[in-house]
Each structure stands twice: as structure tokens, then as C-alpha cells.
Specification:
globular, transmembrane helix, membrane
Length: about 290
Amino acid sequence: MGYLVGVTVLWAFSFSLIGVYLAGQVDSYFAVAMRVVLAALVFLPFLRPGLLRGRQRLALMGLGAVQLGVMYIFFYQSFLLLSVPEVLLFTIFTPLYITLLDDALFGRFTPFYLLTAALAVLGAGVIRYDGLDSGFLLGFLVVQGANLCFALGQVGYRRLSAELPESLPRHSVFAWFYLGALGVVLPAFALLGNTSALPTTGLQWGVLLWLGLVASGVGYFLWNLGATRVDAGALAIMNNALIPAGLVVNLVIWNRDADLVRLVLGGAIIAGSLWLNERWIKRRALQAV
């Protein structure tokens, strides 16, 4: 859980950095490609190819391609179809996908996880809901594509990690994850990128370096590592804990308007769902003794 909490704080800053310094100024496909290239450079020096079999390497590359590559393409396209509040609102369904996919991949069904994930969605909705415009169905489906990719990447890594020896140093193989993502984002930039909208200031390059080396590099490694050390319910809830964290950072540092009542209420619902999930896990463990 410590990994997930730490990355939540890290990514909370990233949203504001993107919104203030990159969005509408730097080509989104270039920004995504640069982030993944830098993240790959962080882990390539540690790569030991012989630690994974060919099938496992391909699986890890596939997870990176889906969780980072395809997810980012869906996510950035959604802003062409929806207003920002609508995009933010529609991302709150990720916890539901995580619980359902995790049960499907591990061959079980846990209704309680679905309940706590739904509470996390409710809390995020309280914070983010700001009305909807007509004609949003296509945009909704595109955002759900991004949500499904992000959820599938997390749950898929949990499933793959369960097959690997506990003694395997995860940082020595994680470069395959980013190499898989590069197989998606580099062709996307080549085909769809706008080379006339590259970074023009040292600040923009600095933000990209931070997002690539730290937020994408260290962040995704620790997030996926944390995903293997908690239950599916806690992972699902933490996916929406980023919402109040991001709003708090934006409010405190950049003084953007935020509905504090809705922020506190929604955050309390998300925290309550996490508490409820932990209580249920502990009770089940005691019953099993």
C-alpha cells in the first residue's frame, strides 16, 4: 500500500504540471513518446534479458503496450470529443474494471470488491461531476477504452507476477514493459504527431524530464509493484484516490478553483471505501485462522 500511496502523491503533481505547462502548448504524441523513451532509459541499464523466458518477455511488453501506449492514445483522443470535466468524470469507472478483470484472470468472483469499488466510483463522481453535454456517447466509449487499458495493464501485471519467482528482482526485467509501450507510442507520433509543436522553453523540457524519468519511469514501476502486494479491492480504490489528491495539489500550489465541500465529501467516501475494504480483509483473515 505504501507504494500506491507514494505514487498517488507523485502523480497528483503530474496532472497539474501537464495542465499548466504542456497541454495546448506541446504536441501530446511527442510528450507521450518522450515520457516513455525517458522511462525506458531509467530501466535499460538494469535489464537482464536472461531472467525471463521468451513468453514472459512478450507478456510484459504486451502489458506495457496496453497500459501505457494504447491507453495514452485513447486518453488524448478523448479530449477532442469531450470537455475536460466530462473526461475527468468518465475516468472514475476504472475501479470497476479492475475488480471484474482481476476476478476473471484469477478465476473467482468477489462481490465485496465490486461493492467497495462502486463506493470509490461514487466518491470520485461526487468530486468530479459537473454536468454533461449532449452527443457525448462516442467520447464516453473512448475514455472507457483508456480505462480498460489501464485496468488490464495493472491486473495483467498482477497475474504475470504471480507466475514469477518471488526472488526475481523486478527492476531487472521491467524495461521490457517500456519497450513494449515504445512499440505503440513511437509509430503513433510518427503518424499523428505535430512536429511544429515541440517544447520551446527550458521549463517545458524540464517538466518532460520530470514526467518521463520520475512520474512515468519510477512511478509506473512502483505502482505495478504495489499492485502485486495488495488485494484487488484496495488496488481498485487507490485508482480513484488520485482524484482528491490531484485537486488538492492544484488548489494549494496553483490556486485553481475547487469545490471544497465536494472535495472533502468525495474524499471521505473514497477513504471510507478503503477502510471498509481493509476491515473486510482482516475479518476474512481471522476467520481463516
